[in-house]
Specification:
Largest sheet of chain A: 3 strands, antiparallel
Largest interface: A-B, 34 and 34 residues
Distance between the termini of chain A: 8 Å
Strand content of chain A: 35-45%
Oligomer: homodimer
Order of helices and strands of chain A: EHEHE
Radius of gyration of chain A: 16 Å
CATH class of chain A: Alpha Beta
Number of domains of chain A: 1
Structural class of chain A: alpha+beta
CATH superfamily of chain A: Phosphoribosylformylglycinamidine synthase subunit PurS
CATH architecture of chain A: 2-Layer Sandwich
Helix content of chain A: 25-40%
CATH topology of chain A: Mth169, Chain: A
Number of helices of chain A: 2
Chain lengths: 84, 84
């Protein structure tokens, strides 16, 4: 069994209103040292696979076909082996 | 300048309907090897700070005071130094 940790982020050219709102709110709360905030998704997935590379392929295809919007988002996958 | 990569995840005891829906949809798309899906947030933050530990403190406080719901969510912060 493998665990995939996936981060899905808006491309830098895409406006991120949720991040902008959080940045503004942090400013109001006194966090003046925070220069920018961008908010994406973090997906944890357990995958039954014979190898790390097979698990990577499943996770990448899941991102391409469902989880990420390939026009607006990038994704990054890290695979860990789960030891029983 | 430092960059904080923050993952915010629902505690394992909390039901994750978004993850359940994604898991179901992946099953329909033929991803039978995916055993579970949980969906959280990924926050990227740029922080002006004198040291890595100061940046870590800012990021952790931002999570505690605004970004994470401490009753339902856990967060994990990684700090990187940005080299100009």
């Amino acid at each position: 069994m493998f665990k995939a940790n996936i981060t899905i982020t808006l491309r830098s050219s895409i406006l991120d209103p949720q991040g902008k709102a959080s940045h503004h709110a942090l400013g109001e709360l006194g966090f003046g040292s925070v220069q920018s905030v961008r908010i994406g998704k973090f997906v944890e997935m357990e995958i039954k696979a014979a190898s790390k590379s097979e698990a990577m392929e499943v996770a990448e295809n899941a991102c391409k076909e469902l989880l990420a919007n390939s026009v607006m988002e990038d994704f990054h996958v890290e695979i860990y082996e789960l030891v029983a």
